[in-house]
Amino acid sequence: MVNLAKVVDFIHELYGTKDFVPLSVPKFVGNEKKYLEDCIDTTFVSSVGKFVDRFEEEMAEYAGAKKAVVCVSGTNALHISLMLCGVERDDEVLTQALTFVATCNALSYIGAYPVFIDVDKSTMGLSPDSMKEWLRKNSVIRNGECYNKNTGRRVKACVPMHTFGHPVRIEELVQVCAEYHLELVEDAAESIGSKYKGQHTGTFGKVGAISFNGNKTITTGGGGMILFQDEELGKLAKHITTQAKVPHRWKFVHDQIGYNYRMPNINAAIGCAQLECLDEFIKSKRKIAKEYADFFKKVDGIDFFEEPEGCFSNYWLNVVILKDKSAQLEFLEYTNDNGVMTRPIWELMTRLPMFKNCENDGLRNTIWFADRVVNIPSSVRL
Fold it and tell me: Is there a smaller number of Cβ atoms within 10 Å at the N or the C end of the chain?
């Protein structure tokens, strides 16, 4: 039987407190107040200001992208990314059911349909093997485009999500997408700073989306970013996320349907300060993960999930895997009753009313994880 009291004591000791230990809280230890005061003093608090441009430039450089464009949320970033990759109403998008609902909401805004493919046990992210198998059985290529033989709909894109900051087998997904004429849109909402074979997540496809929500590794309060390997596509993204306004000294001319998705300067200011601390934050999170890994090796009945081979994970949210659903529920109840915040994986997309009738491949590993995974406290510790 698992000694849950020992687990709770260890987590309290890890964070140096006997009080409540939250799951993931932001850390403000740099220039956040200084940069915010600059916004207020100069009155540049909206979507025009030096911190917006600076945040985009510095994020692009950090990630190794050709261009980066800010948005007001990671969901917005995904929405625009899918649009720019040509996803249209009634298209289908291959993605994972083990994800936060934003992934599916974004494609639903366009009127597209998700098709849920299983994840790998080694990454918790979209499996290239499962995806290729589904495409082999269920798709046909006509005039250079992929179609679902069951529904007749075009299959336009693939959206893998780097779950809890752990990179998927992205190179193999790139190959499958090329073979079946699919666009790759990376949901890197949780994986800022994570790398696959030395390359930053979000830079393997045409576009990648990052989130800066309040509980992410770095935050802007609320916000997102799109990473581009095509600079011209990035310029188009900036245009349509600024209401598609044509630059002019005084005229208000808009040349297409646009979106009010541009991050305000005041949020970007926080982002610039947070980005300065990112490497230090990740170093802290990886140290915490190492301490968890060492501890849980001595605990029977609980496994700690470690970064996939060849990857550098930011360990946004640490994961333990229990032996079954009953053990998962017991762990959740005991920890939350004793001052340690834990949570299960998100409700699978196939179990939500909006997506319960969407096609899937059986999701064997996905369901296995849903019945066993628990996220444990992962805040930066400095």
Answer: N
